[in-house]
Amino acid sequence: MKIIDFIVFTGGPRAYAPNRLRKEAKKNNIIFRAYLYKYLNIKLNGAPQNYIFSYKGRELPPAKGVFLRALGEMAEYNPYKYFLIDWFESKSAKVINSASFKKWPSLDKTSQHLVYLKNDIPFINSAVFGSQESATAWANPSRFPFIVKSNVGSCGTEVYKIKSRRALKRLLKPFNKRTVKGLLFQEFLPGGEDLRVIVLNGKVLGAMKRIASKGNYLTNYSRGGSVENYDLTGDASASKIALKVTDTFSLDYCGVDLMRGKDGGWKVLEVNRACQFEGFEKATGVNVAKKVLEFAVG
């Protein structure tokens, strides 16, 4: 069976990252495929090491490099990653972030914070509650405004700035005692800007500053924020934290989001194991797609 140089698994073939990877692969004569999770099938035959992985009815081809994207912690296709990693690594493929997936099968925003605590990584003051009653009792007037976000949201979705107890109750109304556990409460830090640092193979590719649009608190490029290059030359702290986060979570590729705390130091907002890079390429001029292909394929 013909070996594919690079396969990206995705939920959206028209998304920026798969398209950029495809175009860059074509420029560099790299055999590339973008596969949709919905066409994957696994047949388990009950014997050790005996399963068949197929795509659109045909056995998955071997590959040199594999990139698992669009696997949110609650995505319906998330369980596929265990089989994909086993399948391709048994055929000597390099699966990006394989070690991290094995160590942390799920890496939601709340789970990340325990790792930050254990490894002395600075982060924004946060809280998680098991019931609406506990959350509303915590929300005394001195805490407003604060941020409430979904444990598994991405691209700035499901992030809310709460300014009053009424607003909090309105947000929590659709939730019950079980689902409210999927929310992370964080201190609101003014300033309207943060950093996205992308790290690949233990090296910082660069950083972009994300700036919220007027009247907005979300800095995400996908939510209307503007982006510009951020020179890390004179900011060793941001690079140091990003590299420490990357190493701690055993990552080959990731985006580390940082924001200035009230003490002026950088705090980690979150780490993303399959971060988007459209705004980053625009702001920094770094060809992320090419570098990912070079790392995975050689």
TrEMBL record:
- Swiss-Prot/TrEMBL GO biological process terms: SOS response
User: Which UniProt key words apply to this protein?
Assistant: ATP-binding, Metal-binding, Nucleotide-binding
Q: Which PROSITE patterns match?
A: ATP_GRASP (PS50975)
Pfam annotation, one family: RimK
The record's annotation in InterPro entries points to: ATP-grasp (IPR011761), ATP-grasp_RimK-type (IPR013651), Rp_bS6_RimK/Lys_biosynth_LsyX (IPR004666)
Q: What is this protein called?
A: ATP-grasp domain-containing protein
Per the record, its GO cellular-component terms are: cytoplasm
Q: Which domain of life is it from?
A: Bacteria
**MF terms (GO), sorted A to Z:** ATP binding; metal ion binding; ribosomal S6-glutamic acid ligase activity
Query: Which part of the chain is the ATP-grasp domain?
Result: 113-297
- Nucleotide-binding: is it a keyword of this entry? yes
Segment forming the signal sequence: none
State the PANTHER family in the record.
Answer: BETA-CITRYLGLUTAMATE SYNTHASE B-RELATED, RIBOSOMAL PROTEIN S6 MODIFICATION PROTEIN
